[in-house]
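We store sequence with structure; for instance:
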Amino acid sequence: MLAIYKKELRQYFCSMVGFAFLAFFLAIVGVYTWAYNFAGGLGNFEETLGSLSFLFVILVPILTMRLLAEENYQKTNQLLLTAPVSIVRIILAKYFAVLTLFLGGTLMISCYPLIIRSYGTDVQLASAYSSIVGFFLLGAACIAVGMFISSLTESQAIAAVVTFVVLLLSFLMTNISGMLPGDGLTQCVILSFLWALLMILGQKVLKSGKVALVLGVLGEAAIWVIYFVKSSLYESLATAIMNMLAISSRFDDFRYGILNYDSVVYYLTIACLFAFLTVQILKRAKSGVFNGIVSGLFIALVVGANLFFGKVNPSTDFSSGSLFTLTNDTKKMAKQMKQDVIIYYMVEDGQETEYINKVLRQYEKISRHIAMKKVNPVDNPGFAGKQGVEGEVSSNDVIVVNHQTKASHHVTASEMMPVETDYTTGQSEQFLDVEGQITSAIQRVTSQDRKKAYVLARHGEYQLGDTILEALDKMNMDTEELELATVEEVPKDCQLLIINGPETDISKEEKERILKYLRAGNDAILNAGYSEEKTPNYYEILSYYGVKAESGCVFEGAGNYMNASNYIVPRITDSTGILEDIQGYIVFPYSCGLSEKAESERRDTLAVTELLATSQESYLKREPVANHLQKEKGDGKGPYSLGYSVQEKVDGKETNLIVFASSGAFSEEFAGLPQLEDASVFKKAVSALSKSEVKEVSIDRKSFSFSYISVPPSRQLLWAATLIIFIPGGLLLAGFLIWFLRRRK
């Protein structure tokens, strides 16, 4: 086998064929790399490769046409049957020789992401190299197809043309299948045609025209009998089979930065299948029945392996920001589910938006209570109305349904892929919010009622940022301002009271109304924070629940701050699990000092747990004055607490509070910054206070922006000349010299 492998590989490099292939391959890749990356400034090499997959339609026929067609033409294929090496080893040696040539070109372009990264630090190498792995696997599968076709004919030209047509159809298969009607009769006719075509091609593998004819007739009869018995089985069946034959569509996973292991298995099994069929074509004739059984078993093994890995669908997400990986919050929410939910993806086959489709496919993995089904809105125009959805449903929309409670929620494609435009600059940015919207929809249909949160107003409170309000909406919660001085009590429908740091004090009447609400076993988020005015009535509420608040502003003296010493980066001291999974920075500006009251000074029914704290070097300026912010004699001495969880159970009623010390932390100035975790702190506090079986979570949308690089014009020309002219030209020159010198000998 090794001797044949070396002989085949030597033939490529002792002639112009191997060098011409590499030169053409690298020149085309160079053109696209220059246009997309160096001139276009795109930092994602995977996007470049995604546009280059068509190369295999052109290169593979040229590369594989002579592999076995030449043996058939020269009648040396008979020597293969009498050689001391098995047919399997001969075929593998030829295949690996071609694959080695392609691997050489792949290794050369593997340097390109490193070159691109030298012009931009945010270039994602992991996603770039996962796409290169997928590119190589796609090439390996195409080469196996080309080798099989080469074994069917004596003409290299026919082998090249047929390989070109087969690969072209395979690359266009998704588009072709998407144009076909999905009704049972049309799909049955297509299946009948595909089976007839398979038997025509299969007679060479079976080595018996009679066996192929019998199988063809039996298969056609079975297809039509099943149709007349139950035609609904055929709806979109042929389309699904054709999509499985779309060899290039699996590369999309790699293109998007996902190392999808079922796609890896798909390409490897395709390569093995066509190598096996090639062996069946060339080996000594045996009975057609025997060949049919062996081939059937092997094909069944290939299909079984793909079905298994397709169901498990294991993958590693290397995309920037892990666009297609569900967060831990969603996974925890799914584990708490007890009701079954179906995610209906309203889309025609072949028309899926892959960014939406890939995220939706992840939900079935995280809970047995979640299923995903595709529904063709053209073939099922009344489906949305039957699920209780009013208005139009467009392609790529999603309907989440809880059939147990008949609750449903419609999510549009534009909500899952929102675009924000800065009208001052004219620039637009797209986001991916599939997880955020679908997780929110699942929470809506599994919860009996939409919850209500009231936000205390009219005391100079910090306004909650839009990011926080959007998060509350995703958590199935409406918000409304509450002017407590104008009503007799906190509204009965209030399930969460939010007080975000009043600048002026509340009245005694308001204090009593808030305490009445809390004593009744209700929940609240109470935020304090530095204010110039004293707020004794508000602080009395905190004190009643075991938390002492000191007026003034906390400063850090140990560097645990950002930009200014009163922009504190607190330590997470939580032992309750409320703030788990928070890895980034939290910034609490203008914080007041919190501390826990002594056990002797508070009720035994209170359980107070610290969540956030400053360092030992922190201090409190009771009346901070500009130019006098350093620690001075008489200042309060840290450490201080910046967050508490409080719980009290009395007479069967349970009150839960989250107390924070920085009202500015949840304004848009801080909560809206993606590099800070302030919004996550607030969302986790709300989730911790939820009394629902499924704790509500809110998933942030993910930036959809590509990474960009900046290459000076002079360097663009240099790389264009190097990648498109010098390297391919050098390979052609080397090949010509080797060919010329060998010819003269």
Remarks:
- The chain has three domains: 2-178+251-283+712-744, 328-428, 456-703.
- The two ends are 29 Å apart (CA to CA).
- The mean pLDDT is 86.
- DSSP finds 27 helices and 25 strands in the chain.
